[in-house]
Design brief:
alpha+beta, single chain, four-stranded mixed β-sheet, Glutaredoxin
Length: 118
Amino acid sequence: MTTTIYHNPACGTSRNTLALIKATGIEPEVIHYLEAPPSREELTSLIVRMGISPRDLLRKKGTPYAELGLDDLSFSDERLIDAMLAHPILINRPIVEGPRGVRLCRPRRKCLRCWIER
């Protein structure tokens, strides 16, 4: 199975996670999700396979989170996904898909031992 990282090169955690993956000898598929955002189906699938809610995937810092009022707990999952699709910077990163599943690798150590190593 291919390992895929949804990567933002401006993010230190994402860069470090990518480096850790490569240090294991794996050359992952790198998706620059700010330039090529996932489709609704892809994003929904990632969320489901991570076992988290859309709200758990939202990034607050350095995003339009507050401006969009996304702290409103009455917003549906669909509305939160709509916001992430319209503003991909709201998608927290890095997301890594590997042989053992999909994880939001924050902190990065969550990723390597459980989801990347063979």
